[in-house]
């Protein structure tokens, strides 16, 4: 069930949205600024992105280890921020008991940021590393190429990521520009606060009133209005890019919740759907629907198909089928639309409170039929641009959004004569169909290779989607090197569907085998072009499951070096598991402070408790444009050598606070019943007994020290390490 939004306006004019979510295990907060990179001063490209970063360095009331960034890592909160063309958001989630402490820091961070010269200089280096990393990021390059199809808004073509070159060497001037940006835009007429959690609406409202009044009221400043989207006459674009070929159709449309309904229709995998027919004919294996640009008045809607082949024939047949599909959705009844909207709403409700807030404010809102007729009038060929992405495109370098792109404007044949008029299947449920989520839930799984998981996914797609249409749930996920099959519905349906799924996995149809092979090849190509740390992280289960070398090197895209060091439990006991989780919570902010702020090695710095491939432990991750992999590995080794000294500095009070936090986490269960069942199965499948109150009580400074010695390779219980690094 969708959570109702209660809106109010505080005395200072701040708009607040409250969502009481009684089933939620965590509470979330998001502050939304209705301004972004298109509102930054032209003389400082990337300033909005820089501001998003630099506010985390400290505020008037919370500095050093007490600021939100460091507090969140020490307390296990999830925290992030993002800058878009016309909006920016900062958000976090936390257990309800400590939610107020996080909200106080989030508000003060944005109401009273310090914006010191040192922090500005440091974040310039971080953003420069991020920009260098994005020069090889396929999705960023595709979005940049798409901007070439539009004549307006003019700022759509500008460079907004930021770099050392764009910011310049005059740090005081940059600091002054950041201060001016904050003074102009961080007033209540440009901001809104979102709170969602299990707390009563009255409690969330009281928190909003307590902290939301920290923002200044309207100063009267209004940024220049955003220009409406306008397409150029040239509607064909080609981009040379390594990896699987992709065909992207984009439309300037009006923002509405009908966009989420359209996405649900497009991503349907049931027999007879658009995706099912594309896969069966070996034309395209997946579709991704995105909104690369959003303003208050219009949106760029992009529909991207991952093509099976780079030939002209495949490209033309994909567009022909897509055109037929667009014509047929115009005949859908209100019953059809209501059914698909309810499916989308069910998926939305399975998101965490934090992801729900992000989706509401920055992406696809909860689906409804509102705006559907208007959207259909905008989904017309004259309003569409085409972007073909393939490795064999012959183009000349063009500058777009700060990237140099090999682009061609050569048109191609868009309609294929070899495709007959297709009839697509759109599900219309019977009157007694009810979308269920929690009848009989059965979970089963096994260790799989990535290749096996791709074949399993291809084999089960249609059955999973058909089950959803019937009001039940069949879900296949591949997580931590394990393939999981979950069924939720009436007991007889569960038995029947599990038998059908098992048969499909035992003897996959030839079409599914072919799809699985293509899917695996596509995933491997995507991994090779992904951010280096993500590539290594995806390979970690494979390395752990091998009985051979514990050190592996992998080729990755870009010039950044990266390393992962995974230190499993010293012993497979609940007591050691508890000690490891507590130790990781102490180490995470120290690792981040040392390598993100003091040494500033690059964009990716992470130390956290991690579970994968039936093993738990502490994971260290570094990625840097400045140091090679051996240097990064040395940094991790040096940090591990410091851990005993860190442990010696832990007070009895601090240790007891961590024990209490871990005890509280035992009672925190995912609100979504499928996710809760998945977590229970993974816990039972793990090598280590689950943590309980007794195990937590055994955690002492000595047990923390024992694990530290194991990580450093000393002591009687020295464990192994898994090391992954770039070539």
Terminus-to-terminus distance:
49 Å
Fraction in beta strands: 15-25%
Mean pLDDT: 92
Number of helices: 24
- Percent of residues in helical segments? 40-55%
Largest sheet: 7 strands, mixed
Radius of gyration: 26 Å
Widest sheet, order of strands = 11-12-10-13-9-15-14
The structural class is: alpha+beta
Number of strands: 23
Low-confidence stretches: none
Shape: globular
Describe it.
With 727 residues, this protein is of the alpha+beta class. It contains 24 helices and 23 strands. The strands form five sheets. The protein has a seven-stranded mixed beta sheet with strand order 11-12-10-13-9-15-14. A six-stranded mixed beta sheet has the order 1-2-7-3-5-4, sandwiched between helices. Strand 17 (473-479) and strand 18 form a beta hairpin. The two termini are 49 Å apart. The model has no long low-confidence stretch (mean pLDDT 92).
Which short descriptors sum up this protein?
6-stranded mixed beta sheet, alpha+beta, globular, 23 strands
Helix and strand topology:
Elements: E1 6-9, E2 15-20, E3 27-33, H1 47-54, H2 68-75, E4 78-83, E5 88-94, H3 99-111, H4 117-134, H5 138-146, E6 150-152, H6 164-167, H7 171-185, E7 191-197, H8 201-212, E8 230-231, E9 236-240, E10 246-253, H9 258-266, H10 274-280, E11 284-294, E12 299-307, H11 312-328, H12 334-349, H13 353-362, H14 372-378, E13 385-390, E14 396-400, E15 403-408, E16 440-447, H15 450-469, E17 473-479, E18 482-489, H16 491-506, H17 510-529, H18 532-545, E19 551-554, E20 561-568, H19 574-598, E21 604-612, E22 615-624, H20 629-648, H21 652-666, H22 673-685, H23 693-697, H24 701-712, E23 722-726
């Amino acid at each position: 069930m969708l959570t109702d939004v209660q809106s109010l306006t505080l005395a200072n004019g701040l708009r607040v949205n409250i969502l009481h979510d009684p089933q939620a295990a965590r509470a979330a907060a998001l502050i939304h600024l209705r301004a972004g990179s298109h509102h930054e001063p032209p003389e400082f490209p990337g300033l909005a992105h820089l501001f998003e970063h630099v506010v985390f360095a400290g505020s008037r009331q919370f500095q050093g280890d007490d600021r939100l960034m460091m507090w969140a890592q020490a307390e296990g909160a999830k925290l992030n921020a993002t800058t878009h063309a016309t909006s920016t958001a900062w958000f976090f989630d936390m257990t309800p008991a400590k939610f107020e402490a996080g909200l106080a820091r989030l508000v003060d961070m944005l109401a009273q940021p310090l914006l010191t010269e040192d922090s500005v200089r440091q974040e310039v280096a971080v953003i420069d590393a991020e920009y260098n990393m994005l020069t090889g990021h396929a999705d960023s390059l595709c979005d940049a190429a798409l901007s070439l199809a539009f004549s307006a808004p003019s700022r759509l073509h500008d460079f907004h990521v930021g770099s050392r070159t764009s910011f310049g060497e005059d740090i005081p001037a940059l600091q002054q520009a950041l201060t001016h940006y904050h003074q102009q835009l961080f007033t209540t007429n440009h901001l809104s606060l979102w709170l969602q959690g299990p707390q009563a609406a009255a409690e969330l409202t009281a928190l909003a009133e307590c902290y939301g009044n920290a923002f200044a009221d309207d100063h009267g400043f209004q940024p220049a209005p955003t220009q409406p989207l306008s397409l150029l006459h040239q509607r064909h674009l080609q981009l040379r890019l390594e990896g699987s070929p992709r065909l992207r159709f984009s439309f300037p449309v009006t923002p509405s919740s009908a966009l989420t309904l359209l996405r649900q229709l497009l991503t349907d995998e049931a027999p007879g759907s658009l995706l099912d027919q594309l896969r069966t004919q070996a034309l395209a294996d997946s579709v991704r629907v995105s909104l690369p640009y959003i303003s208050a008045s219009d949106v760029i809607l992009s529909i991207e198909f991952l093509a099976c082949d780079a030939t002209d024939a495949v490209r033309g047949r994909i567009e022909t089928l897509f055109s037929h599909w667009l014509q047929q959705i115009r005949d859908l009844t209100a019953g059809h639309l209501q059914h698909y909207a309810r499916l989308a709403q069910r998926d939305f409700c399975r998101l965490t409170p934090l992801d729900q807030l992000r989706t509401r404010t920055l992406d696809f809102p909860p689906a409804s039929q509102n705006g559907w007729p208007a959207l259909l009038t905008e989904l017309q060929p004259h309003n569409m641009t085409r972007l073909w992405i393939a490795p064999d495109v012959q183009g000349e370098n063009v500058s777009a959004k700060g990237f140099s792109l090999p682009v061609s404007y050569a048109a191609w044949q868009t309609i294929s004569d070899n495709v007959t008029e297709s009839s697509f299947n759109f599900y219309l449920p019977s009157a007694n169909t009810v979308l269920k989520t929690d009848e009989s839930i059965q979970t089963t799984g096994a260790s799989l290779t990535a290749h096996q998981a791709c074949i399993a996914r291809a084999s089960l797609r249609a059955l999973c989607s058909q089950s959803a249409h019937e009001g039940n749930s069949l879900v296949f996920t591949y997580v931590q090197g394990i393939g999981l099959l979950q069924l939720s519905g009436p007991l007889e349906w569960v038995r029947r569907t599990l038998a059908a799924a098992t048969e499909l996995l035992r003897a996959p149809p030839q079409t599914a085998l072919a799809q699985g092979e293509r899917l695996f090849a596509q995933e491997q190509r995507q991994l090779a072009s992904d951010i280096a740390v993500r590539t290594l992280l995806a390979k970690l289960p494979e390395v752990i499951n091998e009985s051979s070398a514990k050190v592996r090197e992998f080729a990755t895209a870009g010039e950044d070096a990266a390393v992962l060091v995974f230190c499993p439990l010293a012993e497979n006991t609940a007591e050691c598991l508890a000690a490891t989780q507590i130790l990781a919570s102490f180490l995470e902010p120290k690792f981040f402070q040392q390598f993100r702020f003091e040494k500033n090695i690059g964009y990716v710095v992470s130390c956290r408790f991690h579970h994968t491939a039936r093993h738990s432990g502490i994971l260290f991750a570094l990625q840097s444009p400045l140091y090679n992999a051996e240097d990064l590995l040395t940094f991790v080794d040096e940090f591990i050598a410091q851990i005993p000294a860190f442990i010696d500095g832990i007070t009895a009070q601090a240790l007891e606070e961590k024990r209490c936090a871990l005890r509280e986490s035992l009672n925190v269960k995912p609100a979504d019943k499928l996710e809760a069942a998945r977590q229970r199965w993974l816990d039972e499948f793990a090598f280590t007994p689950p943590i309980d109150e007794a195990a937590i009580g055994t955690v002492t400074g000595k047990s923390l020290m024992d694990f530290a010695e194991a990580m450093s390779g000393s002591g009687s219980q020295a464990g192994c390490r898994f090391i992954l690094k770039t070539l």
